[in-house]
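Side project, low priority. Logging it here so it doesn't get lost.
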Amino acid sequence: LTLVDMQGGEPHLLKSGMEILMVMELTAPGTTWGVAKKANIISVKILDWHGEGPTSRVIAGLDWVYGKVLASGCPSVVSISARWEECQPLDDAVEKLADHQIPVVTGAGNDRSNASAFSPAHAPSAITIAASNILDEQTEISNYGESVFMFAPGEAIYSTDIGHRFLLMQKLVMNVQSAALVAGIVASLLKDEKWPILKIMHELKKASLENVLKNNGYAPDKKQE
């Protein structure tokens, strides 16, 4: 099983890129708490070291993943740790992966606004994850809205680090942390076989708690966690 991290920037220069990989290491193939210990992580660079780049580069990265997964036949999960203004070609690239049973888990964004205004969070088959905290509250900067599939822990997340056993992730990458956690869970569900996206979403909902998220004033609509 392969877990693909579509990350932004050089990991050693752009801190959030390294942190999302560390969350992946902890939640997916980590030897201590990993929920999918046999998963392999492949990091696909889609942005420059400033964390910037055109959507065409992201689409090219997704197309690369598409070709590699089809060639290998290996069950795979894609995690995208960035967001762009609504872009139909990018959404279409996500749908192309989903049509071939390659789930794409993405963060809702950290703009304190409606995730439906952004891609790939806006894509119909994207598994869009917003961030909650230990009190079952939406985090202060998390996006929200109808495009959000569910909330997952995105605040005060511990992960591995070079030279340290554990490291507390920084506040500004909340949604990429929560998306990485869910990507690890999806990887554990798939194991050795591919699943349709609707089946994955159904199993995630079965494993979640509904109507526990406290509306703390950052989002006007009702959501579930």
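Brief comment: Strands lie at 2-7, 40-45, 76-80, 84-85, 104-107, 118-119, 127-132, 150-153, 158-161, 164-168.
Revisit when time allows.
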